Amino acid sequence: ASTLGLVATRSGFVWLAAAHVAVALLCLAVQIIDLRAAGHAPNLHAWDRADALAMLRPSLFCGLASLNFLALYEIPLLILQWTLGPVAVVTFATTRTLFSAARQLLTPIQLALQQELPRTLGNATATQLLRLYQFSELVALAGGGALITGVALASPWLLHVWLGDRVEPSNLLLALMGAATLATILKDNQFALPLATNRHEHATLAVSAGYLAMAGIGGWLAEIWREPGLLAAWLLTELVLLAWLRRRNYAANGWGKPPYAWLALALPLTLGAGLFSALSALTNTAPLLRLACATASALAVATVVIASSGHQGWPPVRRFCAVFSGCRSEG
């Protein structure tokens, strides 16, 4: 009700935020009064510090998820507002929303695989857990690369249908947004293993520290290179976290040295360069031809990722082939 009232009076965002804080404090006060009336008032004089910290510590890691969301999604918009103004905020946020929608198409498959991680950890061998983990990597690489490619190449037409010609991001912005989004997909896939196996303390702290550092570096680069500078900081942060999480996952589970580390790191960078070249070449292209090129390019990226991994003997790729083409799979 407070939000609707402030919106109706065209109040600023500061007043909206203040209203949310005031409502939360009011609800807390009402709850305390109700507890006292029922004879169950909280007594802070009888609490045990050690027990309280033991109970609160797991919740603090959940709180870091909110901090990560703030650093990854909200602080970049504040930086752009302070340095470049509202037009840059709208362009950046709209473009990111478009790529986030594409990312959500892959989420059900990834969640289905991630649900199997704790069950496999408890009921299977380390080798079987490794196979499932590597297959999830393949899904993130091939599926994420294909979706990001298709959306990026079709984005001028999609934005035209969605918003008319009110938002027109540059080709460089689209390419960097695609690369950063793919790097985020790959990083989240690596982060899923420690989360699923309840060994996420150090990983959560590392991700939070990385995103806070990204906010600082991104603010500095945004003043120099505008939106591409901020995206460059985001991409670099995701790649560093991706490499660290992947190495940590292999070491924590006794799997040895991570194989084909270059593929996970090179694909976002290669994809970004390829998207920029393709978007430049498709400028002023007819919508139907653009959509055809986007579809063909997405299929090509998925095929190249699967084929290149398979030629190098990646076990999950051989099983992928066994399921869908009937070729024999090696264990």
Structure in words:
Helix content is 84%, strand content 0%. It has helices at 2-8, 13-37, 49-83, 86-123, 126-163, 171-196, 201-252, 261-281, 287-311, 315-325. The protein is globular, with a radius of gyration of 23 Å. The longest helix is centred in the last third of the chain and has 52 residues, at 201-252.
List the helices and strands and how they pair.
Blueprint lengths: L1 H7 L4 H25 L11 H35 L2 H38 L2 H38 L7 H26 L4 H52 L8 H21 L5 H25 L3 H11 L6
Short description:
This protein is an all-alpha fold. The protein has helices at residues 2-8, 13-37, 49-83, 86-123, 126-163, 171-196, 201-252, 261-281, 287-311, 315-325.
Helix content: over 70%
Structural class: mainly alpha
| Largest sheet features | none
Give the end-to-end Cα distance, rounded to a whole number of Å: 60 Å
Gross geometry: globular
Number of helical elements: 10
Number of strands: 0
Assembly state = single chain
Average pLDDT works out at 84
What amount of the residues lies in strands?
A: under 5%
Radius of gyration: 23 Å
List the uncertain runs: 323-331
H/E element order:
HHHHHHHHHH
Can you give keywords for this protein?
331 residues, mainly alpha, 10 helices, 84% helix, disordered C terminus
